[in-house]
Structure formats: structure tokens, C-alpha cells
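Entry 14. Ran structure prediction on the chain below.
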Amino acid sequence: MSSNNLAAPPWRRFHHVALIAGDYSASKRFYTETLGLRVIAETYRAERDSWKLDLETQDGDRLELFSFPGAPSRPDRPEARGLRHLAFVVDDVAAAAALLESRGVAVEPIRIDALTGKAFTFFADPDGLPLELYQS
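Output, C-alpha cells:
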């Protein structure tokens, strides 16, 4: 189906990405201390026994981190249906990977995207969610 006949969609960009943490405290430390995302707000919702942490990247992209008691684990294959991974744009993949490794995060070897020629690599959050560093 050609998109040439379609009107421009009303959505312009993503507002946020939401994640559910298995261990909220470990994930909060990882995203704030290890990755350095800025805390916008943290809210406890007693009716759900759930924390919600609003985070932001340097460029204003937002990530919501939730805790939900008894949430099931995610599928263990990256090719399972649903969210495959989150990618962070960085100026220098090697430098960003080295920073993560200095903070105790295991990072895969850097590869080159065959389609774009850009460097990229993967690492994981405390729940095993694949995260990517992608050269700008």
C-alpha cells in the first residue's frame, strides 16, 4: 500500500516509553546512576502498590519506570513479539560503551550497521531488557 495518498499523520514523535521493573530499586539506580537519566518526578500510587518514576534524557526524551507487584517476566528472546529493544543515540559509541563498562555494565562488541554504516552495540538493564547505543 502506498503512503503517497495518505494525509500526514497527526502524531509527531514519541512522548515516552514505559517500562515495568522487576526490582524497582535496582532499575531506578540503573537508569538514574548508571545511565544518568534525569528524574522529573517520582510518585507512589497506593491503590496499585506501584511506583512511577518519570525520567528524561539530555534531549528531553522521556522514560517512565513502573513497579507492579507480581508482573510476569518478559520473553527471553529479542525476537519475541512486542518491544524488541530501546536505542539511545550517542555521539561516540565506543566512549559511551567504555563509560558503561566502567560502571560495571556488560556491553557487547561494537558492530557496524550494514544499512547505515553507523556503529552500534547492545547492553541490558537489570531485567534483561536489551538497550542499544547507536552512533548519531
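The beta strands are 16-21, 38-45, 50-56, 62-67, 86-90, 111-112, 119-124, 130-135. Will compare against last week's run tomorrow.
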